[in-house]
Design a protein that fits this description.
Strand order of the largest sheet: 3-4-5-6-7-8
Order of helices and strands: HEEHEEEHHEEEEE
Strand content: 25-35%
Helix content: 10-25%
Number of helices: 4
Amino acid sequence: MTIATYKWTIDRYHQAIDSGIFDGQNLELLRGDLILMPPEGEPHVYFSDRAAQILRSLLLGQAQVREGRPVTLPNGSEPQPDLAIVQPLDTVYLEHHPYSENILWLIEYSYSTLKYDLGDKQIVYAQSEILEYWVVNLQDLQLTVFQDPSPLGYRTVTNFQDGTVSPSAFPNISIEVRRFFDVNRSS
């Protein structure tokens, strides 16, 4: 006897969501698998909300900052990154969530899901050709920047605990790294 697992397609996943099957559950679809996400702790919510405010003020309409909303990827995945910085396509997002080509960069705040965010999730993002992915590690107070996607993951991985960082989509914007996880840094 062969054991098989059921792989969800994005269409079936959307049908299940629309029918209310997953109401009240925090799920992500990754490579056709449903991933039950743990609740977000207070630091996670506080810092990701603050980062969204900072990015909106820095980007000033050059991009849209989406908080905890799905992105649809070509590898049977529909994760919900904490922050998705996407092209400002306005009503196009009534028809579909941002696709890979609409995504400028993604940010995850991570504590309990750190291994997942630095492992499986970064590989899915790289395979989907997301040009840049940041993980704010709330365990070690560190920012990991992934760039240069490949089918095996990102080729360039840089860790920061201080200094400044600029997203490749907006090299003219410089952000103090500690603003992502230090309460003593102003918004």
